[in-house]
Amino acid sequence: MRFRHLSTYALLVAAMPAVVHAQAQKTTRRPTPGAKLAAECTWKPADAWVKRQAEFFDESKHDWSNDSLRNALLEAAGLKAPLKVPVQFGVHLEGSDSTSPAGAAGMVDVLKKLAATRGSTWPTRSVVGAAGTHAVYLLVGLDTTLAKTALHRMMEAGPVESPAPDVATLEDRLRLLAGRKQIYGTQFRRGTDGKVQLAPMEDSAHADLRREGAALPPFKLGLCMAGKG
Amino acid sequence: MNSWLPSMRWPDRSATARALEIASDSPMTVSASAIGASACHVCSDISGVDSGGTAEGNAPIVGTWVISKDAGKNVLFIDGRVWKRGQPAGGLADKARELYGARNEEFIESIKAFAYFPIAVYKGLDNFENGEISVRFQMVGGTLDRAAGILFDVKPNGDYLTVRYNGTEDNVVLWTFNNGVRKFVNRAPTLTPLELGTWHTLKISVHGTQMKSWLDDQPMHDYTLPRTVAGKIGVWAKTDSMIEFADFTVTPMSK
Asked: How far apart are CA A158 and CA A165, in angstroms?
């Protein structure tokens, strides 16, 4: 089954232009005149989750080993390093149109081969850099079978090597596809009335603990960004 | 059950409520580099907990263990959020020396090798050889792991066994940790998905070399160990797991 993936950035373009603008400006989001946005929809660079993402995606040391694979991943995913932080808001709308960049399919095949090869070097942070790992996240989302293996590899690699907010968002997506409930609250669906709804979730009481652990924004911010706030 | 010795339970909320309250207000951060005797919040008697959060005569801990509340009840919480950020407390050497005397260096080396795995060692029982150990647990979170285990056969050199449930794999597995190397021993055949935010019970029994395990009273393992066990016991977690533990119960039995 093919993911109909819409990246966080793309979703924000559709749902919250003002927030995207603020992200591009690397400033705290401030409501523009005439805009009515809930306070929960704002974030600051000093917010803990933003800082943690900034730490992970800091590539100033250039401490990865495989530049060619990294470049191929970034190109296939349509990314350009350095990535703007926050990279991952944990907002994914099911059924959104996928706009896979040209070459994505070829790199998905490369990742499939890596995933199928026991003992292969998975493209983690020390291999392809933090931006490369986000590219992996975007690409594996195009293939459910690959995504399952990739999630396992990402979890195994640990927090230094894998982007926690991407891992969390991917796990939620796969849980829903497997008929289970999501646990971070990153997945949304459009109801029959066209409104965005939170997909089924378990243990919402601890959602913010989990989201904090995964360097995702607070639940309220996620809901707000998905158009629920 | 033919128990020759009385069961011991921790936390004993009636006896330790005040201490736990103090601990809750002053959570400690203890990591792999701080395995020692001062960090247990869950032993049968932690009335010695002071305002700094230390407790005399209690368990050594790897990871960040704090007392948390669940429905008004004190529970032991392994907080993977803090582990991930790597804020270890110091004093590993002193604490290891306090625990294991002349063998502390061996213990330190082994524990460093297992820094990936938070543990809380129960000091109320020095040597568990036969009997039952159970603990209730609730998975709260963990991006990379959601693992809750029973620790047993803990040796002065840091070697140990654990039977754990992992919510990212839905299985119960027996692992051994020897000389800084973790090895898979046996996986229970049943996959059991558990919902986060719900309480479950993990139990093991050891009789000689026969080890059995249960998850919520469902049989998991019936396994023959290569040798008998003898050592300390406790609870175990993995990396960034956020798990609440409660009602740790050990029932030592005769051979």
From this structure: 12
Q: Indicate whether B3 belongs to any domain.
A: no
Which CATH number goes with the domain that contains B136?
Answer: 2.60.120.560
Q: Report if residue B233 sits inside a domain.
A: yes
A59-to-A215, B34, B115, B243 alpha-carbon distances in Å: 18, 31, 26, 32
Would you say residue B85 lies in a domain?
Answer: yes
Cβ of B143 within 8 Å of Cβ of A214? The answer is yes
- For residue B60, pLDDT beyond 80: no
Q: Please, what sign has the CA dihedral across residues A193, A196, A202, A208? A: negative
Domain encompassing residue B146? 8-252
How many CA atoms are closer than 13 Å to the CA of B87, on its beta-carbon side?
10
Give residue-wise pLDDT tens across range A58-73. Answer: 999 999 999 999 999 9
Q: Where are the domains of chain A?
A: 8-28+39-225
Antiparallel, parallel or unpaired: β B210-215 and B242-252: unpaired
Which among B138, B140, B143 is the top mutation candidate for probing chain A, defined by the most A β-carbons within 10 Å of its own β-carbon? Answer: B143
| Cα angle, residue A159 at apex, residues B163 and B93 outer, rounded to 5° | 65
Residue the block writes with tokens 């396994």: B223
* Whole-prediction pTM: 0.78
Give domain status of residue B1, yes or no. no
- Say whether B144 and A180 touch across the interface (CB within 8 A): no
Return the residue of A nearest to B193 by Cα. Answer: A180
- pLDDT tens, residue by residue, B128-164: 999 999 999 999 999 989 999 999 999 988 899 999 9
> Which residues in chain A are contacts of B144 at CB distance < 8 A?
154-156, 158-159, 162, 164, 167
- Please report, for residues A185, B110, B120, B251, the alpha-carbon distance to residue B232 in angstroms, rounded to integers and kept in the order given: 40, 15, 10, 13
* Number of domains comprising chain B: 1
Contact between A202 and B195 using a beta-carbon 8 Å cutoff: yes
Q: What is the pLDDT of residues B159-171, one digit of tens each?
A: 999 999 999 999 9
The answer to whether the CB of B79 falls within 8 A of the CB of B67 is no
Cβ pair B233, B162 in contact under 8 A: no
User: Quick check: B109 and B180 in contact, CB under 8 A?
Assistant: yes
Of residues A146, A155, A167, the one with CA closest to residue A104: A146
**Complex confidence, ipTM:** 0.78
